[in-house]
Amino acid sequence: MSTLKLGDKVRFVNENMQGVVTNINGKIVGVTIEDDFEIPVAANEVVKIEETVVAKKDEPVFITKKSNFVKVHSGIHIAFERLSETALELKLHNSESDNISFAYFQKNNQLYELRQQGTVSLETYVSLGKFNLEQFNTWPEMAFQIMFVNESGNDFKPQLVKTIKMNAKEFHASFKHCYFLGKQAYSFRIDEAINKTDIQKLLNKDFSEPTAKQTFVTGESLTKKPQPIVDLHIEKLTDRANELSAQDILDLQMKVFTKSLEMGHVHQMQKIIFIHGIGNHFLKNKIKNYLGQQKSVVKKYQDADMVKFGGGATEVILN
Prior knowledge:
This protein is of the alpha+beta class. The protein is built from six helices and 19 strands. The longest helix has 21 residues.
């Protein structure tokens, strides 16, 4: 069996799932699956998916290439294109303005050194150099200085200054279809601020009242009698799911599940159905593992009505 490395695509031996290796700790590896959940698993329980990567000929660094794809995104994006198992090429793409003027820096000994500058017209990209994936931990901090230029002269945007220090987990989890390259790549939007949600507000929220979509409520907890059917899909729990990390989403789903189970027992309910969906086996397995340890509360549990829920829900019979 070949040694696993960060960024390897793998499939699970005992599950119909695949993902990307985003963490390695001895014989345990973290695999991030399609839903952005990182699953810790023994290294011998996953198998590397071998890919044939055709190396590209070197391109002049300052050449700007036209994208073959219709604009479907806005913003300024960077992408690390895989040239081989370890070689990556950094691209800067403009989907925001008629033209941008950019300066690209790398940090060296506490000082930022200018590595490249130029212009990029709308829906084109420019190469910023190559990186070695095996040397990820030594990659320098990067900085971008970008000025937006629109030919109409009616839409003035402030200058963008963005510094980036790559995080291993976030980097490898970003491996997805890149619209302007038309292939899988490590891609990021650099002109969009990420708003960090106060997850504690969600964890303290009362989810016992049925609503189509929950919003933030503070100062309450799950102490009321829960509904007989509890939907754990994240979009049913908050309208800010896009601001949460995969771990925050899982924490919230498990918090709602465990508190609903606890309050169902307190209020002497006979049963509760938890909807977890069929696409995320990880959440379903965590729920069933937890239920198996709650013998004082749970009489039995089983898949809920297959016709009604299609295998995406678990019915819990309470003591």
